[in-house]
Amino acid sequence: DAGVIQSPRHEVTEMGQEVTLRCKPISGHDYLFWYRQTMMRGLELLIYFNNNVPIDDSGMPEDRFSAKMPNASFSTLKIQPSEPRDSAVYFCASRPGRDNSPLHFGNGTRLTVT
Amino acid sequence: KNEVEQSPQNLTAQEGEFITINCSYSVGISALHWLQQHPGGGIVSLFMLSSGKKKHGRLIATINIQEKHSSLHITASHPRDSAVYICAVRPSGNTPLVFGKGTRLSVIA
């Protein structure tokens, strides 16, 4: 089991550019979560999916952020256009469907927007 | 709204010391998680508990449901324990976790 796989590990881009972050959850996991981590605010939930369907996107900061899960093995988080305040570490996590199962995190994508 | 408060925010200890990190939350929960994040690394789940106590090696986690409080203890601390420890609670069943801001632990040799 390779765990949750995120790419890229690091992304540096200029303000205004489109950024796409990718995630491959653990096979068989029904839930997929996108989190953002900053020094000021800690870990924040952006959006989560259950069986590829978005359940709660209330944490998505604004319309510049969008997330998709076209199939059970792949999800993307897109920021268009990016801004310096989007600089953070973005984590993807997945877990099985049964109640209170543990969460498995990817290694994160460190995004820097200049 | 469920708030999760951790204390202390930062902790420096000498190698070998017994360490306690505390977590308090404001509403009923179905489970509490302790996570570990190493510098530059990903996040690892250490414990998930809904009552009592769990132990894994030198790590012990306890929870008091009535008092809405949990503690993470590290016995015989070692520099490799240096990390950020994050408490997270699940309000019910399959709802998403609510995270504390973490406790940054540095263990000095």
Description:
The complex is a heterodimer of chains A (114) and B (109). In chain A, the strands form two sheets. In chain A, strands 2, 4, 5, 6, 9, 10 and 11 form a seven-stranded mixed beta sheet that branches. Chain A has a four-stranded antiparallel beta sheet with strand order 1-3-8-7, with no helix packed on it. Chain A has 114 residues and is mainly beta. Chain A has no helices and eleven strands. Chain B has strands at 4-7, 10-14, 19-25, 31-37, 43-49, 52-56, 59-64, 69-74, 83-90, 98-99, 103-108. In chain B, strands 2, 4, 5, 9, 10 and 11 form a six-stranded mixed beta sheet that branches. Chain B has a five-stranded antiparallel beta sheet with strand order 1-3-8-7-6, with no helix packed on it.
Poorly predicted tracts of residues of chain B = none
Largest sheet of chain B: 6 strands, mixed
Shape summary of chain B: globular
Structural class label of chain A? mainly beta
* Total strands of chain A: 11
The quaternary state of the protein chains shown equals heterodimer
Q: What structural class results from the helix and strand content of chain B?
A: mainly beta
Mean pLDDT reading of chain B:
92
Helix content of chain B: under 10%
Instruction: Name the shape of chain A in a single word.
Output: globular
The number of helical runs of chain B is 0
Q: Beta-strand percentage of chain A?
A: over 45%
Q: How many DSSP H or I helices of chain A?
A: 0
- For the record, give the distance between the C-alpha atoms at the N and C termini of chain A, rounded to a whole number: 36 Å
| Beta strands of chain B, count | 11
**Secondary-structure element pattern of chain A, one letter each:** EEEEEEEEEEE
Mean pLDDT of chain A: 93
